[in-house]
Amino acid sequence: MQQTTQMGVNRTGAQMSPIDTETMERYAENMGPDSGIDDMNVPAESQPAADMRAQYIDAADPVGSVPLPGTLKGAMSTTVDKLTGNRPEVLIDKLGERLAFERTGTRLYELMIAKCKEMDTSAVDPDVLGTLMHFHDEEAEHFAMVDETMRAIGADPTAVTPCADVAGVTAMGVLQTIADPRTNFAQCLNALLTAEMTDNAGWELLIKLATETGHTEMAQKFQQALTEEEQHMATIRQWLERAVITEAT
Ligand SMILES: [Fe+2]
Fold this sequence. Notes:
Ferritin, Ferritin_DPS_dom, binds fe (ii) ion, mainly alpha
């Protein structure tokens, strides 16, 4: 597999055909933007795409719902939360999101390990595979921890919550990047960094949410996951820097 960036025949740039570029620019100028945000004074009917988007937004249903508690324990803890003025569905939704994300994280590292077995990554770190394996195991542990936490409050970890659904869609590009057999080590690290940065912010938010809603024990338990995720993010960022700078110099 080709690991380094090469110069070659790439026809995607405008400079490849100045005459066609001129025609394209003239066409774009005549058509104008159709995003609906460039000129708020332009009536929607003269921006058909923006108009259509607005109609869909107005008519759209939300992305799923948080399931009602299926167990007596869940019903009890939901009632207690409701009585204290909290909306437990928000916490359950975000727990569902972290669960989905950690599952995806485990899969990302599996893909990354498979790819790195076919590459020489020793210039970046002598033990890339060992470290990736370690991070993989921690993602799986985090998944198990969230699963256990959800069961402890009577929530169903097998249900896809709205935020879990959205996080899955958002992560699709990262998965596609790493699964693509053509992407090299640095490109995969770039995608992994996107996931790890989001993951870190997700744990930080979840810890704040658990604290604010009176689940201090839960927040303390999650702090350990955040510490490990910070290490993942720092390592991936450092590897990416090394991989790119080594290639360039
Ligand atoms: Fe991670």
